Amino acid sequence: MNKDPSEKEYKIKVGAKTKTVQVDYLARVEGEGAFTVKTHGNVVDEVRLNIFEPPRFFEGFMQGRNLAEAPDIAARICGICPVAYQISALNAMEQALGVQVPEYIHQLRRLIYCGEWIESHGLHVYMLHAPDFLGYQDAILMSKDFPEEVKRGLRLKKAGNELIRMLGGREVHPINMKVGGFYQLPKKQELLSLVNVMKQALLDAQATVRWVNTLPFPKLERSYEFVSMTHPDEYPMGRGTVVSTSGITTTAEEFENHFEEYHVRHSTALQSRMIKKGAYLLGPMARYNLNGKQLSPSARSLVQEIGFEEYCVNPFRSIIIRSLELVHACEEALRLISCYDAERMPAFVPFEYKAAIGYGLSEAPRGLLYHRYTVDDQGLIVNAKIAAPTSQNQKTIEEDLFDFVSQNISLPDTELTWRCEQAIRNYDPCISCSTHFLKLQRIHE
Amino acid sequence: MNDAVVVGIGNAYRSDDGAGWAVVDALQKTYSKNVAYKKLGGDVAQLLDIFSKFSIVYLVDACCSDRESWRRFDVSESDLFMKETLTSSHGFGVSQAIALAKNLDLMPKKIIIYAIFGKRFIMGDCMSSSVADAIPHVVAALIKELDICTKRELRIT
Predict the structure, then answer these.
(1) For A364-382, what is each residue's pLDDT tens digit?
(2) A159, closest residue in chain B (CA to CA)
(3) Which residues of B touch A147 (CB under 8 A)?
(4) Which of A234, A261, A294, B25 could form a disulfide with A270, with the two C-beta atoms 3.0–4.6 Å apart?
């Protein structure tokens, strides 16, 4: 087991009281987690994001399966972002086999990825995160006072789902992508049937940016190591290389030379760190800060209209960036639909098995998703490694909590807990399946 | 707005949770009068969409309970479904969809829930015997109710 080298950084003076802030069950996140903040005297002793959901062993049970099954098995890891798991797996397998897919396949994959960003971001912004800012326990209570906004969020989620269904055969765990391409390409007319839906979605996304920009944002500014993909021709989604704030430029193949996973006692999910540097941040804020100029014209224009910073370091404001990415994904989807002319082209590139290692990356809604597979010459998977964005973000989430609690230790317990949860939800963490009851334990010694 | 829809909710690979779909499958084979059928996993956005398109919605869903067999609930006669609060995206379900529909003014004229009381919600396609026994009774009750509903609609038209 590796020891976290930066644990000592958690010793900061915060005041005279001693207490433990403990949330036993974290709500409005995808999964089962909790967090604990312990202070002693005037020092924050410890911050733990505790992921206690049992390990799911996907990497283990892919061993011995045919490589063609990997994208669909990996998709089952998440019901919110299955396309991300498919694309990263496809990228890895195609790299292993030396398959070069044509540009129209890339574009169609980007289109289905837009659908996923729209449904995932729409869900998170309106149903999971906005209630935090407005003081509601949940979106149902919020809908009494903000019915039009909640309807807008539901329309966005539905639009994203329709795009995924059209290209993937169904909206959750789509089944139409395969190594080398697609099982079946859509007809132009089928895609055109979505234009009105996507035009409305674009209007809704633009309204979302204007709305979230009016929310009250807690103060927290930190110096992050942002990591995201980058591509010379497009805002990163399904292809490209990796860049970071401190100047790392790398590829999927070299990813593990720069980033490593390690185990901490309080989490069943491995944490990640940049080798010799520590925590790093993935997701919308990283993508925007490293690639913001490549957002679509409407999204760029909204950046100007609302006067949004070109480089954002307040994680609470990531809801604005997520909304800008909604605009980008809707506009990009419309562009891709209008450009599509490949319905008579081959749906996939044939391939032959060979023993190799394949590395794949893509930008899931929550951030960079890394896959590595070793396959043999019979097309069987020898081993697999998957690093999900939430597991990579865990350490940064803990550091955010540490700083936030340090700066706000005088807040009443209820508000402090509320804000800590909100800070965790800045990352749209996907731990999968959670409920909404909280137990705050404050221990004065 | 169309007329009536029967919506089976659940997962055929989760033992008793497949009850809603099994009812829809059985009903579709025997009853085809002016009724639409849907099978859903329980997604709230899809449910709200259905609420906005049909005037009478029959939801058939398995639920955890120590009770045996099944029970019919008329949502308009109960505030039971307003007491639930939203938890996470994985917590979106029937009660949350109904609560949201009420707040968003998306309720159909009527929502009837046929709840089939299950015991086993584990991986697999084998239902417990009490759930399997309940399915033909729920189908029969729905046919009776749909017949009355269809005749009423015909009289109106």
Answers:
(1) 999 999 999 999 999 999 9
(2) B45
(3) 103-105
(4) A261
The Cα–Cα gap between B9 and B113 comes to 11
Q: What is the mean pLDDT of residues A71-84?
A: 90
Nearest to A30 among B49, B88, B96 (CB): B88
- pLDDT tier at A26, thresholds 50, 70, 90: low
Rg (chain A; Cα; Å): 21
Asked if residue A174 lies in contact with residue A82, where contact means CB atoms within 8 angstroms, the answer is yes
Please tell me which of the candidates A141, A161, A434 has its beta carbon nearest to residue B90. A434
DSSP B123-134: SBS---HHHHHH
Section B104-133 average pLDDT: 91
- Nearest CB neighbour to A127, from listed B41, B84, B89: B89
Task: Quote the ipTM score.
Answer: 0.82
Local confidence band at B68 (pLDDT 50, 70, 90 cut-offs): confident
Res. A431 pLDDT band, cuts 50 70 90: low
| Residue A251 C-alpha, separation from nearest chain B C-alpha, in angstroms | 33
The Cα–Cα gap between A57 and A383 comes to 12
What is the reported pTM?
0.88
Any chain B CB within 8 A of the CB of A118?
A: no
User: If you average pLDDT over residues A211-236, what whole number do you get?
Assistant: 97
Please tell me the number of Cα atoms within 13 Å of A163 on its side-chain side.
Answer: 32
- Checking if the pLDDT of B74 tops 60, the result is yes
Reading the block at residue A350, the tokens are 């044939």
- Candidates A120, A125, A140, partner chain B, best to mutate (most B CBs within 10 A): A140
Q: Which of B10, B9, B16, B1 is nearest to B131 (CA)?
A: B16
